[in-house]
Write a structure and sequence with these properties.
This protein is an all-alpha fold. The chain is 73% helix and 0% strand. The longest helix is centred in the middle third of the chain and has 25 residues.
Length: 440
């Protein structure tokens, strides 16, 4: 059934959707033409965040508020002590490149939802669960946490999601952070580790993701409930889009190296969605787009506010450190320091720190010591993936707990071997890259 634009969205929500769309266009103009400074594109993000405050969950709002207060305090002290205005401008930019990518990628949900919705009977057994694991991973690599909701809602339509299904969705999603150029993780890492190369990050991220998926597949297949547990009916129609989009981004990056990967991902997502709708849904094209602008974009409120707060925090920390001439970074950032950073960031995730915050902070503190930004980038991606998969406070785990009633304790028990194993894999990947790249 085709989606139709509905007049039910509150006026303030509709306004917010158009503000975010305006921000997307301003960000693309700034990136493609340099006719606008980045902070101009960031200004609408502030308006959108203010309008969406009342739509956010209390714990997410508290976390963003803490980051914002800390960042503003750092900026105030830094400016008082005489640092220049570049940190204030950076805060005003509000991570607009990441927010623009988030908005652009969200339009892919229009296509993905139509591709994977099915009324087919749910197939039971190990093979069905493994197809769900790998298929949801590929879909999630493009449309992020929406894949969990689409697949999870279908699996729980007739009976509640069980712990094994919850684990399958959790692993499918969290492992995406190792490599996907469409994931917020990659965007944040490319900004936090300037100079890191997408090709190198994917080259080391994909094998890591495959190891994590194979370990998860082995664990899922051996679970005593696997034979009686339903999976999702995956077909080629649901999986062609992730492959095509990944290829398009890589080709675009090859021929347009002057554009940042974040901008390329945003452009590819928007142009792909428009092309798909104009060719295959011409009669409903504008209706579907309008519905997404009015209802889909405002649902990004929590992420938008968090990225804005993270930008303020990063600017505040940088201004404070410069004003006080404090150096927290080690003398050199090599494999041992990267392994310690990975361990520390996963530890912070376990106590509730959002990976956006930890990645931004780590980048701000460590970059002065970094001689090879790819090493830092790999470390941040690994910490994001492992931390999200292990932490009961991560967004995906909180969604599984609140939306489907999955026990956090049950997931922690199933992760008791996965965590140490993936940390060991992460250390091996870091040392392998450092040896090949000659980082010493």
């Amino acid at each position: 059934m085709d989606q139709k634009a509905t007049p039910t969205a509150p006026p303030i929500t509709v306004i917010t959707g158009w503000i975010l769309l305006t921000m997307l266009f301003l960000s693309l103009i700034a990136a493609l033409t340099h006719a606008l400074p980045g902070y101009i594109a960031g200004i609408p993000v502030w308006f959108a965040a203010i309008l969406l405050i009342r739509r956010q969950k209390r714990n997410q709002l508290i976390q963003s508020a803490i980051l914002f207060i800390l960042g503003v305090s750092g900026l105030a002290i830094g400016i008082y002590k005489g640092v220049d205005n570049r940190y204030l401008i950076k805060a005003l930019e509000a991570n607009q490149l990441i927010v623009a990518m988030l908005i652009g990628v969200s339009f892919l949900r229009i296509v993905a939802t139509r591709s994977i919705q099915t009324d087919e009977r749910l197939p039971p057994g190990q093979k069905a669960l493994l197809r769900t694991l790998f298929g949801t991973h590929l879909i999630g690599a493009v449309i992020n946490i929406s894949s969990i909701m689409i697949v999870g809602d279908r699996l729980s339509a007739q009976r509640p999601l069980n712990t094994l299904q919850g684990l399958t969705l959790l692993r499918a999603f969290s492992i995406c952070a190792c490599w996907s150029p469409f994931f917020a993780a990659m965007g944040i890492v490319l900004i936090s580790a300037p100079g890191a190369q997408l090709g190198t990050l994917i080259l080391y991220g994909l094998p890591t993701a495959l190891i994590a998926l194979l370990l998860s597949a082995w664990q899922i297949a051996r679970h005593p409930d696997a034979a009686q547990t339903n999976g999702y009916p995956m077909h080629f129609g649901a999986l062609w889009m992730p492959f095509l989009l990944a290829v398009l981004v890589m080709i675009s990056h090859q021929y347009l190296p002057e554009l940042s990967v974040i901008t390329l991902v945003t452009l590819v997502a928007i142009l792909f969605t428009l092309t798909y709708l104009l060719l295959l849904q011409p009669r409903n094209c504008f209706s579907l787009l309008r519905t997404h602008i009015h209802e889909g974009l405002p649902k990004l409120g929590s992420e938008v506010t968090l990225f804005l707060a993270a930008a303020v925090l990063a600017s505040g920390v940088a201004a404070l450190l410069e004003s006080m001439q404090i150096r927290l970074a080690p003398e050199h950032f090599t494999a041992p320091e990267a392994c310690l950073t990975l361990l520390a960031l996963v530890g912070l995730a376990l106590i509730g720190m959002h990976p956006v915050t930890s990645a931004v902070l780590a980048g701000s503190i460590l970059m002065p010591s970094v001689s090879d930004p790819n090493l830092l980038g790999i470390t941040l991606l690994l910490s994001w993936s492992i931390g999200v998969g292990l932490s009961p406070f991560s967004g995906v785990q909180l969604s599984l707990q609140s939306r489907y009633g999955i026990s956090a304790i049950a997931l922690m028990k199933l992760n008791r071997f996965y965590g140490p194993f993936m940390l060991s894999v992460g250390f091996a990947v870091i040392w392998s890259y450092a040896k090949v790249a000659g980082v010493s």
